[in-house]
TrEMBL record:
Lineage: Bacteria, Pseudomonadati, Pseudomonadota, Alphaproteobacteria, Sphingomonadales
Entries under Gene3D superfamilies matching the protein: 3.40.50.2300, Winged helix-like DNA-binding domain superfamily/Winged helix DNA-binding domain
Any Pfam family matching the protein: GerE
InterPro entries (UniProt xref): CheY-like_superfamily, FleQ, Sig_transdc_resp-reg_C-effctor, Sig_transdc_resp-reg_receiver, Tscrpt_reg_LuxR_C, WH-like_DNA-bd_sf
Domain of life of the native organism: Bacteria
Residue ranges of domain HTH luxR-type in the record: 133-198
Key words of the record: DNA-binding, Phosphoprotein, Transcription, Transcription regulation
Residue ranges of every copy of the Response regulatory domain listed in the record: 7-117
Name of this chain's protein: LuxR C-terminal-related transcriptional regulator
Keyword presence, Transport: no
Coiled coil: none
PROSITE patterns named in the record: HTH_LUXR_1, HTH_LUXR_2, RESPONSE_REGULATORY
DNA-binding keyword on record: yes
């Protein structure tokens, strides 16, 4: 892979900030592809790059969902103005590999992007998927994780209930919560996430 960033995918609803960031980066010789939102990005899915996304509520989650549908995995760097520590932790737990407080100077941004690129290269595609899947599984309670384990092993609600000494109805509730927290529409999505998180061998 070439040194430095070949392609930066910028997702930010704020037109003025998008222009400012694009300008700052192009002056640092970084190619920027700006997008207003995710649906604009998904209509012309890039081949490679790092995603710099403004940390709006649910944005990282939605981005990871899109990446899993496309089977393409890009390192994500989140950014926002004066982010609170809790917000940064939340974004990292959601699967971002770095966080930037905006505004930032071009050299600082360059350094962060380089670091993210190196980290992404060292973890590789499969590892990146695993990190993101683990970030999602980590949100589950212990019980929801046990139910996910049962589901991934192909057990019915009744059998999971017997194994965990809870009623099938309780399994059903945990299962619904678990799907919701994983952002999974179907059991098959949850199983894929469990496999990617290396819960299932």
């Amino acid at each position: 892979m070439e040194q430095g960033i070949s392609n930066l995918i910028l997702i930010d609803r704020d037109m003025r900030r998008r222009a400012t960031i694009s300008h700052a980066l192009s002056s640092a010789n970084i190619h920027v592809e700006p997008f207003e939102n995710l649906s604009e990005l998904t209509s012309s899915w890039p081949r490679s790059g790092i995603i710099l996304i403004h940390d709006d509520a649910g944005a990282i989650d939605e981005l990871i969902e899109n990446m899993s549908q496309h089977g393409e995995w890009f390192p994500i760097i989140a950014f926002s103005e004066n982010p609170a520590a809790q917000r940064i932790v939340g974004a990292i737990l959601d699967g971002a590999i770095d966080y930037i407080a905006w505004p930032i100077t071009a050299p600082e941004l360059n350094e962060t992007l380089d670091r993210a690129m190196r980290r992404a290269e060292s973890v590789g595609n499969a590892k990146l998927r695993e990190i993101m899947a683990r970030a999602r599984v980590d949100r589950l309670t212990r019980r929801e994780r046990e139910v996910l384990g049962g589901v991934a092993s192909g057990l019915s609600n009744r059998l999971i209930g017997e194994k965990l000494s809870i009623s099938p109805r309780t399994v059903e509730i945990h299962r619904a919560n678990m799907l919701n927290k994983l952002g999974a529409n179907h059991t098959s999505d949850a199983i894929r996430i469990a496999i990617e998180a290396a819960m299932v061998h």
